[in-house]
């Protein structure tokens, strides 16, 4: 609102875009950034590095940074300032205490369902206080008032989300998802730690993402060869985002432990043959 | 843009909402309205009734009014002012000369495919001149620059749109759709004209919608009975919008001439039994 500012933390591409968009409709400031000179972010900032504005309207973070391969494993304490979190790429990866957040938003297209719908969990008091000089479609209060039917709802995406949530429940819910995701993470990061002369993980250990482990090979030529060999072996989509290069293993909830284990086996063979 | 105003025409619920939203982000004025004291609109305004601002940034109309059952059958001449048209509920109903419009937008969920995606056809010069102080997601220029991949695309809805367009092509394209839609319109409006003592069409003849014919029965009790009897006979969704009441026959491209003919037969029987 007028006279207020919002705090943002730059931990990667999407966090930065959120900050840049916020500046268009209001006043926003950076409470912290871990962006390096080459544009990459290799870690999540420590609590002591974050300079929160105690009078901010809200504080915004992005919990998982798909391109950088980093993830918040402890959420910052912003005191009385409502914490807003973009969980698009890691919601449902494990149980989360939603009461700690003023608002959580998540584009469905990773762990919830197909693209085309966004889940929002918000404190009523926060959205009630929202600005009324912005388009109605941007006012969460209006969406809540209309039971999420302010606009014509994307029915197929919602139907698929219902099905995915049902499957997650049947498979043991979020505790089971967390167990599975930690096993997958242990497999991939085990590989990086054991073969660090060949697979170089740029991300600080405590900031590693369980959704998108990233790593580099000794040369870009080898990275290209790995992407191509992997494709022949049945592993697709392992190329890192074009803005940072390297290899990225997206292992969202739908990816099984067995699939990751098979990839790790393939990667070990690749290292042996090309290392 | 600053210092400019946009013209809107109120022909019903959606046209009015567009006007109301425009006033939030800029200056907007009504070039005409056919809203009556009871909130309904029974016709499309004549060219002579529209008071266009020759210096407007654009002029906005809604080509088909689903709730009121009216439709533009001749598009207004706005001279040098770009005409923007919401064709959400009647795009693809017949061939349209898109070159006459500055911008056309259409939510897919009627004639193009499932809900969750919007088609936009725009003059490059118009979108290039768009404001840059609004959220990026609202700037058509940015969407065009990124080949419609500014945001994560709703892939399933786009895939279905591709399939629907393919089917429309296979069935003879838009000339075939127009022929079919005019036949459907002739059937329903034939019923209203022949049995006008029982089926009362509130809409002026020249403004009748080929997508959503609406009519009233002698009493609300009979309207309720018709909805209920129709359901038993296999016709669903014929209840008029709650804001206006009555009966509404939505006959988008996917509805066949045969289906409408069967409904008309049912309606004649209903009139005979209850008239």
Task: Briefly say what this structure is.
Two copies of one chain form a homodimer. Chain A is of the alpha/beta class and 275 residues long.
> Biggest protein-protein interface?
A-B, 21 and 21 residues
Largest sheet report of chain A = 6 strands, mixed
* Oligomeric state of the chains present here: homodimer
Return residue spans of chain A where pLDDT drops below 50 for at least 5 consecutive residues: none
Write down the secondary-structure element order of chain A.
EHEEEEEEEHHHHEHEH
The pLDDT mean of chain A sits at: 97
Give the strand order of the largest sheet of chain A, numbering strands 1, 2, ... along the chain: 2-1-3-6-7-8
Q: Mind telling me the C-alpha Rg of chain A?
A: 20 Å
Number of helices of chain A: 7
Distance between the termini of chain A: 56 Å
Estimated structural class of chain A? alpha/beta
What general form of chain A does the structure show?
A: globular
Total beta strands of chain A = 10
Word description of this protein:
2 copies of one chain form a homodimer. The first copy, chain A, has 275 residues and is of the alpha/beta class. Chain A has 7 helices and 10 strands. The first copy, chain A, has helices spanning 13-25, 124-128, 140-145, 155-170, 173-194, 220-232, 257-274; strands at residues 5-10, 27-33, 59-62, 64-65, 70-71, 83-86, 103-107, 118-122, 214-215, 247-248. In chain A, helix 1 (13-25) links the parallel strand 1 (5-10) and strand 2 (27-33). The radius of gyration of chain A is 20 Å and the shape is globular. The N and C termini of chain A lie far apart (56 Å). Chain A binds chain B through residues 21, 24-25, 107, 109, 114-117, 133-136, 138, 152-157, 160, and chain B through 21, 24-25, 107, 109, 114-117, 133-136, 138, 152-157, 160.
């Amino acid at each position: 609102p007028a006279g207020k500012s919002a705090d943002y933390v730059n931990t990667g591409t999407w966090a930065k875009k959120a900050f840049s968009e916020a500046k268009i409709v209001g006043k926003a400031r950076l409470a912290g950034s871990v962006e390096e000179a080459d544009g990459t972010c290799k870690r999540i900032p420590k609590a002591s590095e974050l300079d929160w504005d105690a009078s901010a309207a809200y504080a915004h973070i992005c919990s998982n940074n798909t391109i950088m391969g980093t993830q918040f494993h402890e959420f910052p304490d912003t005191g009385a300032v409502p914490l807003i979190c973009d969980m698009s790429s890691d919601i449902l990866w494990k149980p989360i205490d939603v009461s700690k957040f003023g608002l959580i938003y998540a584009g469905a297209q990773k762990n919830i369902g197909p693209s085309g719908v966004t889940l929002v969990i918000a404190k009523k008091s926060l959205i009630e206080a929202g600005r009324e000089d912005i388009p109605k479609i941007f006012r969460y209060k209006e969406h809540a008032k209309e039971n999420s039917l302010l606009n014509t709802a994307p029915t197929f995406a919602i139907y698929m989300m219902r099905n995915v949530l049902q499957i997650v429940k049947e498979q043991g819910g979020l505790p089971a998802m967390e167990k599975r995701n930690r096993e997958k993470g242990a497999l991939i990061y085990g590989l990086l730690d054991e073969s660090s002369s060949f697979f170089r993980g740029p991300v600080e250990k405590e900031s590693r993402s369980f959704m998108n482990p990233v790593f580099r090979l000794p040369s870009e030529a080898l990275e290209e060869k790995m992407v191509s060999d992997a494709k022949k072996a049945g592993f697709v989509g392992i190329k890192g985002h074009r803005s940072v290069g390297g290899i990225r293993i997206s292992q969202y909830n739908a990816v099984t432990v067995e699939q990751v284990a098979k990839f790790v086996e393939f990667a070990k063979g690749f290292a042996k043959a090309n290392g």
